[in-house]
Amino acid sequence: MAPVKVGLLGLGTVGSGTATVLKRNAEEIARRAGREIVIDYVATSKSELPQGLGLSNSRITTDPFDVLNDPDIEIVVELYGGDEPAKRLVLQALANGKHVVTANKALIAVHGNEIFAQAQEMGVLVAFESAVAGGIPIIKALREGLSANKINWLAGIINGTGNFILTEMRDKGRDFADVLKEAQQLGYAEADPTFDVEGVDAGHKLAILSSIAFGIPLQFDKTYLEGISKIAKEDVDYASELGYNIKHLGIARRTEQGIEQRVHPTLIPKKRLIANVDGVMNAILVQGDAVGPTLHYGAGAGGEPTASAVVADLVDITRALTSDPGNRVPHLAFQADALSDTPILPMESIQTSNYLRLTASDQPGVLATITQILGDGNISIEAFIQKQSATKTGEKASETATIILLTKVVNEGEMNLAIAEIEALEVVTSGITRIRVESLS
User: What is the pLDDT of residues 75-118, one digit of tens each?
Assistant: First the structure.
């Protein structure tokens, strides 16, 4: 059979990785797909195509619409990232009857409902395995491998930058700002690291995972986002003393009231495997009713790990080119007319345990007052630590103490009210640092 001709939009790290993998494993890929897959047209700002990528026979243009409007191109790979022009290009490719592969998690999380509707109307596919967790085939696992299961919940380390920062803070006792600067120097974090450290990137990915897991429309705008920029190294130390590691998790959980969809720092018991995923690696823990817990681990970013997922999508689409569109795997795992309207719960409705750290005057009755407030809010204490605030040599003994409390499971709204009441006490000399706790059992 004739080769499948691919148009590549973008020749950055992932685009170059995709070309490299297709060249190196061409024979193996053709054996799996049933046909050769070739990059026939490349849209890039480069004046010429780099050597060694297997693109010597490929055409080149600076205008991506040249690729979209070429009748020979059957699959378009969008690797520009961001919102625009990516959205406009993908919708045009679909309108032209071309299948699309994209690594653009923001595009899918925010505009996926519109994009999938157009793809279904045109009878073409949009594949996006590489949009979540790089080379880990978590989309395929949820959509196909676990399709016999009712997914109860999932929790994932789905941003390598944040995981690298928290690992360095724990292992080397470093400050957040110091590690962030190194992450930027190493290329793990952008010059503007907001998406990584404030949870936006993880939120995009979680919205996609949640939709596939529970059969609901994509709803990034209802995802709770909280970053790690306020985590201090003492929080990492105190968490360890209590038997926990801090991870920046994306959590989606099915409840009787609706779907929890939240990203925030989380204390996890050290004995959990996911608590020991370090550095820039990603991991997603999925709980299904039939299979139980499954852990999916691997490289969440990088040229070739992400290209692995891009090429896998190309293979899947190549296999499906001759199939009846009605019999293809649905974009969001469930048939388009079978997505449910289960609501995403507001953060105030969820229930978790909590880690609280505060500084208060070191005088009799302070702890009793704080525990009374918690008790009045029906909040039970699991454990607490009190530390005398450190003083420099020659200074008078400190008159403040650091108090660390670990609560039992409590409603988020009730916890918020108690925190506000405690912070209003004159004896409390700092804001309260709150980190949620998940047992993931």
Answer: 999 999 889 999 999 999 999 999 999 999 999 999 999 999 99
Q: How confident is the model at residue 393 (pLDDT cuts 50, 70, 90)?
A: very low
Report in angstroms the alpha-carbon separations of 21 from 61, 116, 305, 308, 309: 22, 27, 10, 7, 10
The Cα–Cα gap between 20 and 55 comes to: 9
Q: Is the pLDDT of residue 224 over 60?
A: yes
Q: Which residues contact 429 (CB under 8 A, 6 or more apart)?
A: 359, 360, 361, 400
Q: Which residue of the set 87, 105, 205, 247 is catalytic?
A: 205
CATH topology (fold) of 4-136+303-338: Rossmann fold (3.40.50)
Provide the residue type at 335 as one letter: Q
Task: Name residue 301's amino acid.
Answer: A
What confidence category does residue 397 fall into, taking pLDDT thresholds of 50, 70 and 90? low
For residues 7 and 68, the answer to whether their CB atoms sit within 8 Å is: yes
How far is the C-alpha of 163 from the C-alpha of 170, rounded, in Å? 11
For residue 2, the Cα-to-chain-centroid distance in whole angstroms is: 38
CATH number at 350-437: 3.30.70.260
Judge whether residue 14 has pLDDT over 50. yes
Strand-pairing partners, residue 360, are 401, 428
| Equal fold, 4-136+303-338 vs 138-299 | no
Judge whether residue 391 has pLDDT over 70.
no
Query: End-to-end alpha-carbon separation of the chain, Å?
Result: 50
The whole-number average pLDDT for the span 426-439 is 94
Mean per-residue pLDDT, 231-237: 95
Which fold would CATH assign to domain 138-299?
A: Dihydrodipicolinate Reductase; domain 2 (3.30.360)
Catalytic residue flag (residue 205):
yes
Band of pLDDT at residue 329, cut at 50, 70 and 90: confident
Which residues of 211-316 form beta strands (DSSP E)? Answer: 224-225, 244-254, 259-269, 281-288, 292-299
With H, G, I as helix, E, B as strand and everything else as coil, classify residue 411: strand
Helices and strands per DSSP (H, E), number in the chain: 14, 17
Q: What is the DSSP letter of 272?
A: S
Structure tokens at 233: 């190294």
Q: Is 230 left (phi over 0), alpha (psi -120 to 50) or beta?
A: alpha
